[in-house]
Amino acid sequence: MFVLHNDIAWQLLPLELGFGSGQTCWRRLERWQEAGVFDQLHRILLAELNAAGELDWSRACVDGSHVRAKKGAPTPARRRSTGGRRAASTI
Predict the structure, then answer these.
(1) Average pLDDT per run of 10 along the chain, which is 91 residues long?
(2) What is the DSSP code string of 9-32?
(3) CA dihedral in degrees (53, 54, 60, 63; nearest 10)?
(4) pLDDT of residue 59
(5) How far apart are the C-alpha atoms of 89 and 91, rounded to whole Å?
(6) Domain limits of the chain?
(7) What per-residue confidence (pLDDT) applies to 77?
(8) Which residues contact 17 (CB under 8 A, 6 or more apart)?
(9) What is the pLDDT of residue 33?
(10) Cβ–Cβ < 8 Å for 25, 31
(11) Distance CA 22, CA 6 (A)
């Protein structure tokens, strides 16, 4: 959060904060992302807010970049190009 809030590079994360080097923090963030930690936290937060009646589902929307369209048109097969190849650079 410090890196995002202060808009700094990971390498500039102050060691005085006690989180380790910026590289260490970045690696941890990457591992947590790969392990699905943030997706799980998001689901837990939504479940708890919903149970407390704190979510207004009438204003919810689905973002197609995260949810697959199950009834969407099939992806067309890739076809080989009949055009010539681009010339190699002569520079």
Answers:
(1) 87 89 91 94 94 88 68 66 61 58
(2) -GGG--GGGSS--HHHHHHHHHHH
(3) -110
(4) 82
(5) 6
(6) 2-56
(7) 67
(8) 2
(9) 93
(10) no
(11) 13
